[in-house]
Structures are given as C-alpha cells and as structure tokens.
Design a protein that fits this description.
about 280 residues, 6-stranded antiparallel beta sheet, 7 helices
C-alpha cells in the first residue's frame, strides 16, 4: 500500500468519526491513552516554546518518538509538516491534492477544529506498517494556530478472557430478561459491544438469529446456513455442539468489524434457556 493510498484510507475512515471527536475519557485503554496524551502535551509545549523550529525535532528519532507512538503535524492548508513515523514521506507535500472532493471536505473538517486549547480524539482504521495490515487506531490532536499536532496508537485486540467475560455477562442478562437483552444487542449498546467484541444470539427452537451486535441483517436468518468467509458450515457446527453441551467454542475465518479484514476468530458459546449466546475474539492471524 502506497503512502498516498494509506493516507486516503485514513481520511475516508476519519470522515465517519468526525462527529465523535471529543475530549478523551478514561477507558480500558487508559494506560495507552495517558502515554499518547503525555507525548502530545510534550510536543505542544515544545512547539509553544520554539515554534516551527520544533518541527525538525518531530521528524526524527528522539524525544518525540516513544515506541510505536510518534508526533505528526499538518497545517490548515493540508500540508504535512512533520512526522516521526512512516508518513514522513509526505512531509512538504499537500496531502489534500491526492484526495477526491469528498475526502477533501472530511479532511478539512478535521484540521479546521478551533484553536481553543482542547485536546480532541477520534478513532479510525489505519495501515499499520509494522504489521502490514489495517488496524484500529486512536488519535489525540490539538490545534495551535494553523498547525494541528497529533499522536495516535494502535488499539490492542480483545483477549479470549474478555470475550468469555462478555459472553457470561450477556448470558446472565438473557436469563433475567431475554427480550430486553436482544434489543440492547441489536442497538449496539455500548454495555454489550466492546471494541472488536460483540454478541450474537440464536433461538434454538427456530434455529434463527434473534440478535446480532454487528450485522443486524442476519436477524431472522436461518443459522444453519451460516458459513465462514472461506465457506465452512459454522452454523451447523455450533448447533451440533449445543445439542449435548452447555458450552462450546469454534474457530473460523470471519470479517473483523474494526479492521474490515477477514481474520481468524474464536467464538465461545453458551446455551441459556433455549438460546445460544455467543461472543468471539479475533487473533488477526
């Protein structure tokens, strides 16, 4: 993937998250968020002290590169001014010139946030050069005059332990109030949808999806017909496991909603009052 194509992917994804830009909050990634914000604050202080002479520091290995974290700066005309990462290839270039009209509008909206001292955040999918794949990234940024200083980090994938914990939470809710729980799942309620984790539920009597936290179009579909992205009959296999067991698990290839790519997924199953509750996690392999 070329640097220009990668930047276009960034802007396309950013267009869908502009409305989410807001002061950062404490969450499961608090340690990474604090680290990123600390580096951003350091860069802002350096820029406030030295002005544009600080840009050269941002574009080399040193105080403003912390592991996979690095500072990058664009101006409000759309020119990349500094980068401590792979986007250094764009320094001095008008990134707006390589975008189509829709992406230009989205990019300009992002870089024209007011200079009001606010640190804003957004999430988007971005090409991870180290892993050679698109992964979810969180960016923190602040505008200073006609400069926008930013830093971002790739968000860790959810673990099998987190997937099992969410499955148990959903199962407990199904026992108490199944219909209300199904509604929450189908509405992508944040309590039951965490990063790349989401639940789905199958009615064992009808053998059809009754809730899905990622693909609502599957609701009402015959679960037996479900196949992995490489064609394996995973619906039939999950139902077979649930015939004689309260719990089960199955690995298969499926689309990760956070990366948009087909990845290996392990799904954990639990039978609850005539329903199968399932939550899976992605390994990216």
């Amino acid at each position: 993937m070329s640097i220009y194509r990668a930047f276009a992917v960034f802007c396309l994804c950013l267009a869908s998250v502009l409305a989410m830009a807001q002061p950062p909050s404490t969450d499961a990634y608090d340690a990474e968020s604090q680290r990123a914000q600390a580096l951003l604050a350091k860069a802002v202080a350096r820029y406030q002290a030295r002005g544009d002479s600080a840009l050269a520091e941002f574009s080399r290995q040193g105080d403003f590169v912390d592991g996979e974290l690095y500072i990058y700066v664009v101006d409000t005309s759309g020119v990349m001014l500094a980068s401590g990462g792979s986007s250094v290839a764009l320094v001095g270039k008008s990134v707006v010139s390589v975008l189509d009209d829709d992406l230009k509008v989205a990019f300009r909206q992002a870089i024209e946030e007011p200079d009001d001292g606010t640190v804003r955040s957004a999430e988007y999918r971005w090409w991870n050069w180290q892993h050679a794949k698109v992964e979810r990234k969180r960016v923190f940024y602040r505008r200073l005059g006609d400069r926008v200083i930013s830093v971002g980090y790739y968000m860790p994938r959810s673990s099998p332990e987190q997937a099992r914990a969410l499955m148990q939470r959903v199962a407990d809710l199904v026992r108490k109030d199944p219909n209300a729980t199904f509604a929450l799942i189908n509405q992508h309620d944040k309590q039951l949808t965490q990063d790349d984790l989401y639940a789905f539920v199958v009615d064992l009597k009808t053998q059809r999806f009754i809730a899905h936290g990622f693909l609502p179009r599957l609701i009402g579909i015959d679960f037996k017909s479900l196949r992995s992205t490489d064609g394996k009959p995973i619906g039939q296999e999950m139902l077979r496991q649930m015939e004689n067991h309260e719990t089960g698990e199955l690995g298969y290839l499926w689309r990760n909603p956070m990366t948009g790519q087909n990845e290996f997924k392990k799904t954990f199953l639990q039978r609850v009052n005539g329903y199968v509750v399932a939550v899976g996690c992605y390994s990216g392999q």
